[in-house]
Design goal:
The complex is a heterodimer of chains A (262) and B (324).
Chain A: H1 2-21, H2 23-47, H3 59-93, H4 96-100, H5 106-112, H6 118-136, H7 143-169, H8 178-189, H9 200-209, H10 217-223, H11 229-255
Helix pairs in contact in A: 2-3, 2-6, 3-6, 3-7, 7-10, 7-11
Chain B: E1 2-15, H1 19-28, E2 31-45, E3 50-54, H2 61-69, E4 76-81, H3 91-96, E5 97-101, H4 113-123, H5 128-142, H6 157-169, E6 175-179, H7 187-204, E7 207-211, H8 215-221, E8 224-229, E9 232-238, H9 239-246, E10 250-256, E11 270-275, E12 278-283, H10 288-298, E13 301-307, H11 311-321
Parallel strand pairs in B: 3-7, 3-8, 5-6, 6-7
Antiparallel strand pairs in B: 1-2, 1-4, 8-9, 10-12, 10-13, 11-12
Classes of the chains: A mainly alpha (262), B alpha/beta (324).
Amino acid sequence: MGRYWRTLRRFWGTALATQLEYQLNVVVELLAVVLSLGGSLLLLSLFFGPGRELGGWNWNQALIVQGFYTVFDGMTTAWLRPNLGAIVTYVREGTLDFVLLKPIDSQFWVSLRTFAPAGLSEVVLGLGLAGWGAHQSGVVLTPPLLVAVLLMLMVAAVILYSLWFLIAATSIWFVKTWNATEVLRAVLASGRYPLEAYPASLRLLFTLVVPVAFLTTVPAEVLLGRASLPLLALGFVLAGGFFAAARGFWLFALRHYTSASS
Amino acid sequence: MITVERLSKTYRVADKQPGLAGTLRHFLRRRQRDVFAVRDVSFEIAPGEMVGFLGANGAGKTTTLKMLCGLIYPSSGQVLVAGHQPQRRHPDFLRRITLVMGQKQQLIWDLPPMDSLRVNAAVYGIPDRVASRRIAELSDLLELGEELTRPVRKLSLGQRMKAELLAALLHEPEVLFLDEPTLGLDVNAQMRVRQFLADYNRRTGATVLLTSHYMADITALCPRVLLIHQGQLFHDGALDRLASRLAPERHVRLELKEPAPAEAFTGLGRLDSLENCEVNLRVEPSSLTRVLAEVLERFEVRDLEVNDPPIDQLIGELFRQGSL
């Protein structure tokens, strides 16, 4: 385990060093994050005037959902997109060979090789927004509540990672998966509004098929102290199932890896 | 160290005719056929041996190399490298081998090689103290100095290749698979890499399997060569024996005192060229003494030379023709 920790520290150390090679990029990305969040809030404010509600959620509560959405969008930018998006490049250029010949788990390598610090600012902004929304809604943040929320956010992170990874792993066969991850991103964007804002059929889709609900709405409900236990249990089951599927699929995909020719 | 028994690899490839009609037909009814990339190849390599692996493009060299590393699964046959079945990619196996590919790089492009080396040290679980010592030793052998702290993108191809070698050898592997390690390097850089590989082999006793398009690499480093042709092993043994197999005839060059007509050389082997007084003949080794005696009897000879055709020329021809 110590070896994996040390490797991860080196991975992210080099990632940071690579980013800092291009100073201007960091500034531009930070600016883009702030502008994008501003735009999202403006859009959200169009639905929720003062005193208006949407599917039983008021403006402050919806801010929590938007906050969590921003957190996961940041996670995607910081972690999923730079790593899982690079699998295609590994396959096309044949450098996956080097990864497979290292005495370290290849899924660990391709999932955590790098990170983009710009996404972290989005995570912080999102947490701030969710905290603000919770405060305005009169939530008292007790330690047990905090643990429960963090646990749900982890479940959400595992689900999001597994979904991305399942799609990214198909690049072993189809070298172009960019479009598929864009579709996923578009579907995930529906998570910026509370689940109840959607019709019943879509709600079912977002709970069971592409569990967007567990990314934002469910953690928000936990924070508001109104989540039902069976729903939380379902979250854990889905996270475990999706992760196992991602792992199994990766091992299966590697058996079919033929390596780019010389 | 390496045992390969009746190793085969087949690929299923789609057969598609060109043009729109071909595309439509291909879309509706996919015709596939099996292509043998490697067929029934067997050989053994002893610890510490340096073996050259030759073959034209598409002969099956890289496929074989990748099966030996465990990157692709064999269709049939047995491979044992350092006591392991490579395709299982057991961590102990991976710690004992390395692969260097002249056309691909593992170094991080935007950072100095030192950063990649530190990543590799962590991945292989090499303590920092040990890693620093090995880096110092290897960079000494490779004549690498401040290049290790300059971004990879600013290094020359030769410097980059040497840094790649360092990164690939940091964990002191026992088996080295080198796929075109000198590709694209200038003659000096090629020579330095070659010298380094010879030194490394002598110092560590590592087993080396090397493919290269530069015959000079092979002649300088490998007493034994494997020649693979159309997926099958064509030759396994010393390089000069390969030469006599590829071109059993000897080259005889004559310089006559006076020009002679072509008919004058009947019965004296095959006439390659005839230009004024200069004559080139190809002669079977068994009849060489008889032919030479007759030549000296029939003509007045000013100069005479008997040669083996140069091996790189033979193999170059083989690669160009793609057939034996």
